[in-house]
Every structure is written in C-alpha cells, then in structure tokens.
Here is the input.
Amino acid sequence: MSPSRSQDGSNEQYGAEERSGARIQALMRQLNEQVYAMASNAEHDESVLLICECADSGCSTPLSVTCGGFERVRQSPTTFVVKPGHVLAAEERVVEETPDYVVVEKVGRAP
Ligand SMILES: [Zn+2]
Here is the structure.
C-alpha cells in the first residue's frame, strides 16, 4: 500500500509535504528520541513503548522496542522501527525483524 494523500487536512503544518514519508518519519524519530530519553535509565533488554516510524502519516501504532534495539536504530538517520507489515517495500529494506517490530533502512525510491 502506498502512502496516499490524506483528505482531512488536520495537520496543516505538514500539509505541503504530506506526501513525503521521510518528513513524517523524521518527526516520529524526534518523538521516539524523547520517549527513549525518558526511559534511558532502563535496562538494555527492557522494552520502551515507541511509536511506529512508518511513512504513513496516519499511523500512530505503539511498538514495544527494547532499549538495546532502539539504541542501534537511532545510530543511523536512515533506519527506522516500524510495525511488521508497515514496511514500504519500494523504499525500505528490512535489516532486522522481531515479533514486535521491524527495523528498516531507507534505500531511496526505486527508479
Ligand atoms: Zn506504521
């Protein structure tokens, strides 16, 4: 499924670039960084509840991600945690798969 233009226009600030999944994902990353920062005293294998970082602007699916797992993901601005099934196959490559979440790497739009 491709991210389609949303009709509700509820998010005016990002309306102009609503087709850009990257923008949404960067936003979700910021949010998750904050959540993660608050949980930074958690154990490495303890899970934090993050928001799915897929390209769908309407998605706010909670994901249970281990601190160690997110630590690796946040090292790179091109990797994101998404719910299984939320991978945008045309633009993302799966680099890690768990029952709770999938780590994808942006590979750019295929020609
Ligand atoms: Zn999602």
